[in-house]
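Hi C.,

You asked whether I'd gotten around to modeling the 326-residue construct. I have! Everything is below, sequence then structure, no commentary in between.
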Amino acid sequence: MQDVSKIAVLTSGGDSPGMNAAIRAVVRTALYHKLEVFGVYRGYQGMVEDDIMAMDSKSVANIIQRGGTILKTARSKDFLTPEGRKKAYENLKKRGINGLVVIGGDGSFRGARTFSAEFDIPCVGLPGTIDKDIGGTDLTIGFDTAVNTAVDAIDKIRDTMDAHDRVFVVEVMGRDAGYIALYSGIATGAENILIPETKTDMASVVNMLTEKEKRKKLVNLIVVAEGDDFGGGNYVGDYLKKHLPNADVRVCILGHIQRGGSPSCMDRLIASRMGYHAVECLLEKKYNVMVGVVNNRMHYTPLEEAVKAKQKLNSDWLKITRILAS
């Protein structure tokens, strides 16, 4: 492959706080190195439909504090087809673009891996997902903000729990990974945390709450990841209402509030650092890797491995939860 001289950046999949900080870092690092840089709107779909614009330093001014993504994001069925990817390639080539930075999750990385294998466009991935469900990095762009949003919401819910002696089931995001539930649950003193990585034993949950009821502990918090194998917050709430007739059980689903909002300081720093190194990777011909952070050091995982790897849950967290909630 030839040296990279013009690069494009896109955001794909679900949005996450900090994506704008990453875009800003990519654009300004590229300009520093005298590269031309383009923004692709609406992810891979925009690449197929030629929704591509040149960017300069002013294009990314005053965006570091904004949630969402100024480049928008979308799912693309067209890009899943060879014909769609060929159109995308032709749209890049007519501008002389010969490097691509993809900010997204594992689905976005699968697209980048396939695209780079079919055509002569090297790609670098940045892990932008609130779920922290990608291996090869301790942190993903947006996770810290999402967790803090969940913690803030649960703290507010606790106020009404205490006022009314209620059992509250709070569902947070996490279809395949329970990190938001685990971290926010521990941080808010949850009595139980239900996540996709472990088998949910509702009989055990009921026994635990019954024992606490005997001790006159009527205020209890259960944090549930949406991908919990019992079916999520509503199913857990219904089960508890049926088996704990004396308890005042309420369910709150936080939903997409966790995706939005101004990114935390941590997410701005991570995104800026990753965006800078994405451009450095392209310049150093370190192609087709995902940029991550492991033990506070930059870590580069081949896209082929990144799409297969998942964060492994540390069992110590579950033990800590059980002990602190007793």
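If it helps when you're writing up: The chain has a mean pLDDT of 92.

Thanks,
B.
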